[in-house]
Amino acid sequence: MRRLLAVAAVVLLAPGAAAAAPSGSGLYAENCLSCHGPGGSGTARGPRLRGVGAIAADFYLRTGYMPLLSPGDQPTRRRSPFTARQIDALVAYVASLGKGLPVPRPHPERGSIPVGLRLFTEHCAGCHQVVGEGGYVTGARVPPLEQASATQIAEAVRIGPYLMPRFPRTQISDRQLDSLVAYVQWAKHPDDRGGWAIGHIGPVPEGLVAWLLAGTALVAVCVVIGKRNEA
Amino acid sequence: MIRSTVRFLDERSGGAPFLRKALRYVFPDHWSFLLGEVALYAFVVLVGTGIYLTLFFDPSTATTHYHGEYQPLHGLEMTHAYRSVVDISFKVKAGLLIRQTHHWAADVFVVAIVLHLLRIFFTGAFRKPRDLTYYLGLTMLALALLEGYLGYSLADDLLSGMGLAIGYSVLMSVPFVGANLAELVWGGPFPGTPAFWSRMYVAHVFLFPLLIATLLGAHLLLVAARHHTQFRGPRKTERKVVGVPTFPGQTPRSLGLMSAVTAVLFLLGGLVQINPIWLWGPYHVASGTNGAQPDWYLGWLIGALRLVPGFDVTIGHYTLVPNPFWGGALFPLVVFGFLWAFPWLERRFTGDHAFHNLLDRPRDAPWRTAIGAALFTWVALIFLAGSADRVFVTFFVSYGWQILFFRIAVWVVPVVVLLVTRRVCLELQASERVERERELAEEEARRAAAPEPVR
């Protein structure tokens, strides 16, 4: 519900969203400047954007993390109020503010899923859950990764959005990153042998099935056969 | 042919009188008496599927690199224990079906025991002369929880490895002797020595099943020796049981129930995924996954561990009681201790030392019903708190607020439940009294209005 409200509010509050010929600086002034300051200089409400590069702007805008309704909130994935062309313009503008990393181009087809699983377990599963179903850490909701695109996964690893730590090349090489991306992509539709996959998170839905499905069915059987036919 | 076989057996065993008696044993007519049987048949399925799994499971912590048919684990380092469970899931004929059925059977086994326990508790079936039967049942429940924990821990996947780490910390947290206990069980610091795996294995496939089976036998013998209880009703007295005989009455009923339990468990095993260890990957001491949960029947303990505020009892630099002790060890001891003590406590407070073969309805014993409802509410709330993180991720309900809510609710709600339940029981009793008086009055009125019988 809160998310819906936030989306509605952002859509209503984005007057520049329908502009025909998008200008990066214009969009920035209308939508970002109040928190990130003129020319990406930063304010008490939002961080400096000089030198964050196209990589950060691309991630935050295409996931809908930005613009944020209230500076204290955790950004969550939603539909961006901007069109793809407007985002292009904004990304180019933010990239022009200083030196920074470009948008990465991962190649998951070159990666290996088993290597990716090992890396994911080592670096990511502690927060994102081993099949990328998300979870809780102190102070934040760790997002599930079902909707993350290959580029967004690579971007998040390098920039570390919100509370996530960032992993530079010295920690996770580009080749390893390919494997990681390959694993996360695979984990969106993993091997579901064994029947109805009840969420890939293990015991909580299993307990629900044991009580609500099996428990109810067996109590019903008891009631039916435990009753004497009164002829 | 049948006749001569029967005669052959009877002449050598002399079992006919006993069998005749057994076939005439009377089972009371109420569906809730079948809940224990559901647990019994789940146990039978557990043993059956478990035997099949032992043929393929390899309880070894020696490491290997996986080169089986499941691509996403290719080349990864893992123990033979984990590798053999992956093989059971992907290579062994019907392995995954049997493995999943075994796991579902464990989950449903405990569900049935808990339902059975609720029936026994709220109808006062645990009273003399059946308190001993009740103690055996409770002990089996405790053993079943441990047995289940050992079972899923053997697989050595990421999730179960974390479960063992939590179990290790809880055992370590026992004041004074914890470190020695953990050393004794694990054979060294976590993750322990290879001997630990053999110990878990022997305990899971031999010691615990044998213990449960023995207690189960004793439990059933005691039930038969003291006969079933029954609800009050016409012709049903403390000395006379009304119901159906073993044969022909109860036998088809019981066989039907056995088929139903087996069917439900195998349907789940074939259609609903449980504990997909190939997705969790192998366990390494340094790794972990968010949202790790135990199987449902240990969820109350994880809930308690999460709810207890973070504090240790220390004397100077010596930690007397480390934090996991409260939720992981003391809490289950209190719950089981109270359930164990309850028959004695009730005798003590009501002064009722008599034999009871007739059951109470919950309303007949307001205090017992109220205390039971409060206790189970308390445990259920703590159990629910254990899944607060998944509720947060799925429904966006703030984790901090949930924990705060549960920390207050676990003390307030049971008290409210206690008072309300007692009140409801008393009101129900009162309404019955009114009803009875009205019936008597009407009867009298009818008699008065009727003409005097002519002599």
Q: Give me the CATH fold name of the largest domain in chain A.
A: Cytochrome Bc1 Complex, Chain D, domain 2
Q: How many distinct beta strands of chain A?
A: 2
Strand order of the largest sheet of chain B: 1-4
Specify the biggest β-sheet of chain B: 2 strands, antiparallel
Low-confidence stretches of chain B: none
Q: What's the CATH C level of the largest domain in chain A?
A: Mainly Alpha
Structural class of chain A: mainly alpha
- H/E order of the elements of chain B? HHEHEEHHHHHHEHHHEEHHHH
The CATH architecture of the largest domain in chain B: Up-down Bundle
Q: Tally of extended strands of chain B?
A: 6
Number of domains of chain A: 2
What is the CATH superfamily of the largest domain in chain B?
Cytochrome Bc1 Complex, Chain C
Q: Low-confidence stretches of chain A at least 5 residues in length (pLDDT < 50)?
A: 15-19
Which descriptors would you attach to this protein?
heterodimer; A: 231 residues; mainly alpha; Cytochrome Bc1 Complex, Chain D, domain 2; two-stranded antiparallel sheet; 10 helices; B: 455 residues; Cytochrome Bc1 Complex, Chain C; 2 domains; 16 helices; 6 strands
Commentary on this structure:
With 231 residues, chain A is an all-alpha fold. Helix content of chain A is 47%, strand content 3%. Chain A has two domains: 94 residues, Orthogonal Bundle (Cytochrome Bc1 Complex, Chain D, domain 2), CATH 1.10.760; 80 residues, Cytochrome Bc1 Complex, Chain D, domain 2 (Orthogonal Bundle), CATH 1.10.760.10. Chain A is built from ten helices and two strands. Chain A has a two-stranded antiparallel ribbon. In chain A, strand 1 and strand 2 form a beta hairpin. The longest helix of chain A is centred in the C-terminal third of the chain and has 23 residues. Chain A is elongated, with a radius of gyration of 23 Å. The termini of chain A are far apart. Chain B is mainly alpha-helical and 455 residues long. Chain B folds into two domains: 316 residues, Up-down Bundle (Cytochrome Bc1 Complex, Chain C); 77 residues, no CATH class. In chain B, the strands form three sheets. In chain B, strands 1-4 form a two-stranded antiparallel sheet. A two-stranded antiparallel sheet of chain B has the order 2-3. In chain B, helix 5 runs antiparallel to helix 6 and helix 12 packs across helix 13. Chain B starts with a helix and ends in a 6-residue tail after the last helix. At the A-B interface, helix 6, helix 7, strand 1, helix 9 and helix 10 of A face helix 5, helix 10, helix 11 and helix 15 of B.
